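Fold it.
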Amino acid sequence: MERISFYDQIAKNKRNSVILITIIFLVFLLLGYVIGQVWGQGSIFIVMIFSIIISLSYILISYYNSDKIALASVNAKEAPREQFRQFYNSVEGLTLASGLPMPKLYVMQNEQINAFATGRDPAHAVICVTTGALNKLNKQELEGVLAHELSHVANYDIRFMTLTAVLVGMIAIISQMFLRSLWFNSSNSDNKNNNAIFLIIGILLAILAPTFVQLTQLAISRKREYSADASAVKFTRSPTGLIGALEKIKGDKPMKTNKVVSSLFISDPLKKNLDNLMSTHPPLEKRIQILSKM
């Protein structure tokens, strides 16, 4: 079996994530250019500023309160050290290995195995695990899961996905504004006739671009999961623990939780094993297969 270097895997997935977000940015520029040809350059400049303000306002509120929103939505409680010594010892060991500051630790009452990390940067990071993960995983498996979550913190995945969400949000707003304006702008028919080709392209882009960039956003999410798996191997120096944990998650029941935060978990709690364009996570089988080659 051909071995995979976790360094190569990390670099590959980070490179793919950058390529994908570049594609989203290019779609944003193309959409702005085409609509500018229909409306006039001055108009699209004003609309872009308006959409940026709306998107940034909405996303930044979520960004700076992402930990509070996520923890409240799953009713997680801060983990007392005296009650969860193994949890604290494992995370402290991993922070020493990774050079990261100690995150705040939380526990959510749920018998299924799962965990998530949130927070805008390593200094404001939070790791939350289910009681099922603490009870069902052995020490090595739990460390594999915690290393995966710390990897999201180390890779600034919350910040990266926030940037992606801002771009996707701006494209959706501009597309909606353009399509709605067509219903109220019939008086400008001469201009429309002069820009018939751009008008058709603009309508097609406004309809298709939001769906396309959302699919690209989901692809980025899957790449970040692969990167976190590889980084977890880097921190623990072994894929065995994470493989064991993912095997147990694969045999676990679906987990009832808020759909809004499902993408944060180590495995999609709602649809664990789906392999399609609408999945936020890669299939567990594929993740295990890649980890087995490291």
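The radius of gyration is 22 Å.
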